[in-house]
Amino acid sequence: MTSGQYSDKDIRHEASRRRTFAVISHPDAGKSTTTEALALHARAIGQAGATHGKAGRRATVSDWMQMEQDRGISISSAALQFEYRDAVFNLVDTPGHADFSEDTYRVLSAVDCAVMLIDAAKGLEAQTMKLFEVCAHRNIPIITVINKWDRPGLDALELMDEVQQRTGLLPTPITWPVGQSGDFRGVLDRTSGEYTKYTRTDGGATIAGEDTYTAEAAADLEGDAWTTAVDESDLLEMEDQNHDQETFLAGKSTPVMFASAVLNFGIHKLLDLLVDLAPPAEARLDKDDEPRPVDDPFSGFVFKVQAGMDSNHRDRLAYIRVCSGVFERGTVLTHASTGKPFATKYAQQVFGRDRDVVDEAFPGDVVGLVNASALRVGDSLYLDKKVEFPGIPTFSPEHFMVIRAKDSSKYKQFRRGIEQLDHEGVIQVLRSDLRGDQAPVLGAVGPMQFEVAEDRMTNEFNAPCTLERLNFSLARRTTPECVPTLARERSVEVLHRSDGELLALFSDRWRLQGVQKNHPDLVLEPLVVS
Ligand code: G4P
To answer: Where does the UniProt annotation locate this protein (predicted)?
Structure first.
């Protein structure tokens, strides 16, 4: 069977070239710098800095709200596509701010691999661990990059121990640093035994110098630093810390490399590693765990919905990850949850402010559909052969606020706004008969989601609102039978979430433990990632 001008074989070939991945890290570990460096090496852009949103540089990372610009952080996310060797990379951008993480979690449903970026001086930080857990839960293979090796930091072997102890993954370094942190001379390639020496270039804005030497030449050149690297690599060898593709893909081991993104050291090797080891776009499991082969007719799912990106384009974008077939602009697809047709006249590839019209896309690619008001996060779209992919999980909210319209004459706008933010997954909306429809509770993973909600309610939906913090920090799934018992407990409240889940809110862990102790039969399940 063919799809337009492409045969099944063509589609399988295109899918096999795709590497769809995200960089997960704690803020400041160097995600933006690494993104720039990767794109620079792959020659998608001319000079480092083009995708970075910081002062003095051309801002393209979708800093679509004034608030975001003021803070200099990226709230929205999109995908950057570039080619390297014979591969096509889709780097799905993740918002980096610690407070704004639900979005980041969702983005991970669209990727086949993650690059875990660790600051050499700080080791595994909180946000990295949270994101790692989501990847681990979804069995996403992880490549670890120890960044900022040009700055004094922890010992390389110590870092390996930390990775192993905290993530449970066996670190299997592909490269090993020559020179301790702060004295980054180059890397020992543990597969070939050769030495890659790095040379700084001005400001790191162009590709760093890389020269390869044999072990003998490296020993002459670097002396003790080389000997130490070889000894440490031998130690790893004795512990069987060598790359193994099977355990990597199974999420049990993690290849490790050392880099300095700001100096462009190690970036080339990271790209090679992604081409050689990261999984391509492959058959994706549907709701019933049936694989959808990549050469089946088109299918994809929405992993992110975004509105108000740009005041010049007051539209709504739904980002879809292509799972099978070819996406061809202009095709009428079917929206799996409603069975209704969905016209794809407006499709764009978006990275920051630059929008390119997309005419076709292959498995692994990300496409932004414009004016997609009917689409929600988790929805599937297909052509000809029906398929529905599993919904995207929501996460356990940790912050709660009551929202009310400031102006009661704007109640219609208020309702419409709340509904929209709920659909987009900006916040979770919780209701109860007791609180009524005029004062729903908003739940969020990070407090900044409330600021986004408030800003959009005021400016986009013309419904100024007030928010009042509630003293809860923990939600558990419960059942209707448990409600009477929970209702008698102090500082516990039960609310309905819009997806039908019944959530019991607690002020803290101790309160939850107290209730569980008094009523061991109560259903109080953690809202884990599904
Ligand atoms: P993020 O997106 O993960 O938040 O991090 P980002 O790339 O913005 O990097 C955070 C800071 O760390 C930046 O410095 C950046 O230049 C620096 N950095 C990134 N990678 C490396 C590296 O390999 N070595 C060293 N020494 N520094 C690195 P900044 O001063 O906050 O910003 P800027 O003025 O350089 O833009």
So the answer is: Cytoplasm
Q: Which two tokens stand for residue 239?
A: 């512990």
Question: Ligand 1 — pocket residues by CB below 6 A?
Answer: 25, 27-33, 54, 96, 147-148, 150-151, 260-262
What are 308-325's pLDDT values in tens digits?
A: 555 444 566 788 899 999
ipTM of the complex: 0.97
How far apart are the CA of 81 and the centre of ligand 1, in A? 22
For 30, what's the count of Cα atoms within 13 Å in the CB-facing half-sphere? 28
User: 32, 33, 62, 151: which to mutate for ligand 1, most atoms within 8 A of CB?
Assistant: 33
Ligand-binding annotation for 280, yes or no, is no
pLDDT in tens, 145-203: 999 999 999 999 999 999 999 999 999 999 999 999 999 999 999 999 999 999 987 65
Sequence letter at residue 73 = I
Query: How many angstroms separate the Cα of 520 from the Cα of each of 182, 517, 525?
Result: 54, 6, 12
Q: Which DSSP symbol is given to 47?
A: S
How far is ligand 1, taken at its centre, from the CA of residue 416, in Å? 40
List Cβ neighbours of 103 (8 Å cut-off, separation of 6 or more).
75, 76, 77, 94, 95, 304, 425
Q: Rounded to two decimals, what is the model's pTM?
A: 0.80
**CA-closest candidate to residue 287, choices 139, 391, 138:** 391
